[in-house]
Specification:
alpha/beta; five-stranded mixed sheet; 11 helices; globular; binds 5'-O-[(R)-(carboxyoxy)(hydroxy)phosphoryl]adenosine; binds zinc ion
């Protein structure tokens, strides 16, 4: 089965064609094309929803066309569009689309485009929860993928969400806890902004933290010892902000702040995940979301659980941040099409 999968929940317009063979657990990515309006938002240090939606509208048809063609041509001509239409008609079995959560304008562009294609090309359509798709990016074939065993604990760490879930089996899951205020990625981006890092701050913060050989600064890990699965990162931002106001910044100090921010966030992510594994007696972890692209986080997770026979699955870096392939990974593992006229953009969609 081949699925055209589309993601437009925020500032990335991404489309992929994924393939799943009968009886196989993992999906192969045949193409994954992403256009981003990040440069536009870098200037403002954050996403302006109307700008993001406008860019989605510009990018969606070229991105889908390139994904169908399987090539990232810089310029598309009439023949390319005709070939893409032919491929959609003859080779694609279904369409998968992110229907939430996300920015309403951005979601609408993707959802209405996918519905139109579903209707006019008579293809089944599968609505996909963006957050679950982040975890199911682990079902994409990579160099060293390995069987995922249920039950598992899922940790979603993105720009808008920090959530812990327990999956008993496919589509049978329980939300254990999440952030009470800022998400992990949001805290990184906000502290990064105070430090003058490029937006989004995750990648630069990671690079700068790696330059620290002797840490001299420590921030508190919020809620690390609380008896629940909740997170809270707004206090960390306040602590970092007070420190930044009181001290004269230089490169060394900025790097130290990056290190301390990452450590405070990553320690609590690991502690709460360990708590969930213990409480529910599981030994498999799935990570997903933009922050899971961080190689220091990956190493810290691996180190923390190395003696405990815990298996940690983390998507390849390019499938950690928003992408179309993860939407297809969820749709193929949970193939559940709806009629096109029953699908709507749901900005507040959470876990159902
Ligand atoms: O999942 P994602 O691409 O979009 C949302 O669904 O929110 O996540 C974006 C977030 C941003 O906050 C960004 O700073 C963070 O992921 N991020 C990282 C890294 N790359 C992206 N955080 C830490 N380290 C990274 N290497
Ligand atoms: Zn995301």
């Amino acid at each position: 089965m081949k699925i055209l999968s589309i993601e437009t929940s925020c500032d990335e317009t991404s489309a992929a064609v994924v393939e799943k063979q009968n009886g196989e657990e993992f999906v192969k990515v045949l193409s994954n094309i992403t256009a981003t309006s990040l440069n536009l938002h870098a200037e403002t240090g954050g996403i302006i929803p109307e700008f993001a939606a406008r860019e989605q509208a510009k990018a969606i048809i070229p991105v889908i066309t390139k994904a169908l063609l399987g090539q990232n041509n810089t310029k598309l001509d009439t023949n390319d569009y005709l070939n893409a239409r032919n491929i959609l008609t003859t080779e694609i079995d279904a369409i998968a689309i992110t229907h939430g959560p996300g920015l309403i304008g951005s979601l609408l562009v993707g959802v209405e485009t996918a519905k139109t294609l579903s209707y006019s090309f008579k293809k089944p359509i599968i609505p996909v929860n963006h957050l679950l798709a982040h975890l199911f990016a682990n079902y994409i074939k990579s160099e060293n993928y390995s069987e995922i065993k249920y039950p598992f604990v899922g940790l979603i760490v993105s720009g808008g969400h920090t959530d812990l879930l327990l999956f008993k089996k496919i589509n049978e899951y329980k939300w254990l806890g999440g952030t009470r205020d800022d998400a992990a990625g949001e805290a990184i981006d906000k502290i990064g902004r105070l430090l003058g890092l490029s937006y989004p701050a995750g990648p630069e913060m990671e690079k700068r933290a790696l330059l620290v050989t002797t840490p001299t600064l420590k921030f508190k890990s919020p809620l690390i010892n609380s008896n629940d699965f909740d997170f809270s990162f707004s206090g960390l931002k306040a602590e970092a902000s007070r420190f930044i106001e009181k001290n004269k910044l230089n490169e060394t100090l900025i790097n130290q702040i990056c290190f301390a921010t990452q450590k405070a966030i990553f320690d609590v992510l690991i502690q709460k995940t360990a708590r969930a594994l213990n409480m529910y007696n599981t030994n498999t972890i799935l990570l997903g979301g933009g922050v899971s692209a961080n190689q220091t986080l990956k190493q810290m997770f691996e180190k923390s659980f190395e003696d405990k026979k815990i298996k940690i699955h983390i998507p390849e870096k390019k499938y950690s941040t928003d992408n179309g392939a993860m939407i297809g990974a969820w749709a193929t593992t949970n193939y559940n099409p709806l009629s096109w006229n029953n699908i709507t953009a749901m900005p507040e969609l959470y876990f159902i």
